[in-house]
Amino acid sequence: MKIIILGAGQVGGTLAEHLADEKNDITVVDTNGEKLRALQDRLDIGIVTGHASDPATLESAGIADAEMLIAVTNSDEINMVACQVAHTLHRTPRKISRVRAKAYLEREEALFNRENIPIDVIIGPEQLITDSIRQLIINPGALQVMDFAGGRVQLVAVRAVHGGPIVGQELAAIRKHMPKVDTRVAAIFRQDRAIIPEGDTVVEADDEVFFIAARQHIRKVMSELRRVDKPYRR
User: Fold this and answer.
1) Domain tally, the chain
2) Which residues contact 132 (CB under 8 A, 6 or more apart)?
3) Among 25, 43, 185, 227, which lies 20 to 30 A Cα-Cα from 107?
4) How far apart are CA 106 and CA 191, in angstroms?
C-alpha cells in the first residue's frame, strides 16, 4: 500500500517504522530535513521536505496515487487542511488525522465527514497506545495479531458473523463471554469506517472488531475469539 505520513516527529517516525516493516511504500513529509534524513538512514522510505498542507508538496510526495494519508504534524489545522487538499484534489481513499484541540473534538461528528472536513479516522490526544493501533489496523496488509509497545501489547481482529454471540451485544456485555480474559475493544470498523468504541456500542454483523490485550493474555483472547467468532485477517 502507498502511504504518505505527514510529520516526522515521534508519532510519525514510529508509524513509518511500523508500516515500513509491513512492506508498504512509505513517504514521510516534514519541514525539518534533518529529521527526515535521520529516518531515511534507518528505514526504507521516501522523504519530502516541505509544508504538509501545500498541494505541491503533497504532489511531490505522490498523493495522486496514494491509498492512505496519515497527518500527524503538531498542528491540528495543518493536518485538517492536508486531508481536505488530498480529498478535494486527488480523492485519496483514506485519510487519518491527529486532532488534539478540544474545540474540534467536541464537534467531531459535525465537522469531520465527507460533506465537510473529509477525515476518515480522528486520532485524539487521549488514545495513547490506541493511536498507533487505529492507524495500523487500517492497513490492508496488517497481520491477524500485531505487536505494540515493544511487544508488551498485542491486537487481534475478528469479523463478527451472523448468529455469533457478540453480534447484537453491547461492548460492556462482551466480557461475559470472556470472563477470564483481561481485554478491551480498541476499535470497530463498519463498512470501512471507524467507530469509536464505547460501553454502549452495539456490535453488528460484519463488523471488524479489534481486541487489545497484554501479551500474556493474548492466547486466551484468541482462544475465546476462535470459539465465539471467526478470526479475521484484514
Assistant:
1) 2
2) 11, 14, 15, 18, 148
3) 185
4) 24
d(CA 26, CA 24): 6
Q: Which three cell numbers stand for residue 208?
A: 471488524
Q: Model pTM?
A: 0.57
CA dist., res. 50 & res. 29, Å (int): 7
Domain boundary among 115, 136, 157: 136
Torsion of CA 135, 121, 46, 12, to 10 degrees: -60
Per-residue pLDDT in tens (0 to 9) along the chain, 234 residues: 899 999 998 788 878 887 887 678 999 999 999 999 999 998 999 999 999 999 999 999 999 999 999 999 989 999 999 999 999 999 998 898 888 888 888 888 888 877 888 888 887 654 543 444 444 444 333 334 566 666 677 777 777 777 776 788 888 887 776 777 778 888 888 876 777 788 889 989 888 888 887 777 766 766 665 554 444 444
Which one of 136, 164, 181 terminates a domain? 136
Do both 165 and 203 map to the same domain?
yes
Residue 141 C-alpha cell reads as 496488509
The residue whose grid cell reads 531515511 is 40
Among 106, 115, 18, 26, CA closest to 10: 18
CA separation for the pair 110, 187 (Å, rounded): 21
